[in-house]
Amino acid sequence: MNVKNESRCPWCLRDDLYIRYHDDEWGRPSYDEKHLFEMMVLESFQAGLSWYTVLAKRENFRKAFAGFDVVKVSRFGENKVEKLMLDAGIIRNRAKILAAIHNAKLFIRVQEEFGKFSNYLWQFTDYRIVDNKPVSTSDVPSTSEASDLMAKDMKKRGFKFMGSTVCYANMQSIGMVNDHLMSCRSRK
Question: Fewer CB within 10 Å: C terminus or N terminus of the chain?
Answer without folding.
Answer: C
